[in-house]
Amino acid sequence: MPDMYVSVPYDVNGANGLNGEPVNSKPVAGTIPRGGHPAYDIPNTNEGYELSKTVVTNPLETTEESLANGKAMYDIYCASCHGKKGDGNGVLSQRDKFSGIPNYKDRDINTGSIYHVIMHGKNLMGSHASQTTYTERWQIVQYVEKLRSEL
């Protein structure tokens, strides 16, 4: 049984797969991936960032529970740079590890652009999409919006 030791490689995007049958590994347009949330397909470009400001909206209702979890996630992933108040004065900024971290109040941002930056990152900030779930990202957005209103 040599196939048990050396597997036959198949090109998942190739024209032919097992027994010469066509392979279609790409999702069908309009379908929702496992997990039940639509894919975020706005590109990581300046144009995509601007587009996110106009077309991306938060699907979650803002509740005390949602804000509490958003705060918990913010404290884990965001506060070290952006500060507990969103003023750009986090511990890494205070220790001169990073400079120029923006104050949320001074930025032309909204719900869509905040989500876009969490998904793709911007400038020195990397993407946090792989560390957080779909719901957690939206809860962080809600909490950042709350911080902006308090600055």
TrEMBL record:
Signal sequence span per UniProt?
none
SUPFAM superfamilies cross-referenced by the UniProt entry: Cytochrome c
Q: Which Gene3D superfamilies match?
A: Cytochrome c-like domain
Which InterPro entries does the entry mention? Cyt_c-like_dom (IPR009056), Cyt_c-like_dom_sf (IPR036909)
Top-rank taxon of the source lineage equals: Bacteria
Q: Which PANTHER family match?
A: LIPOPROTEIN-RELATED, QUINOL:CYTOCHROME C OXIDOREDUCTASE MEMBRANE PROTEIN
> What is this protein's name?
Cytochrome C
- Which species is this record about? Polaribacter atrinae
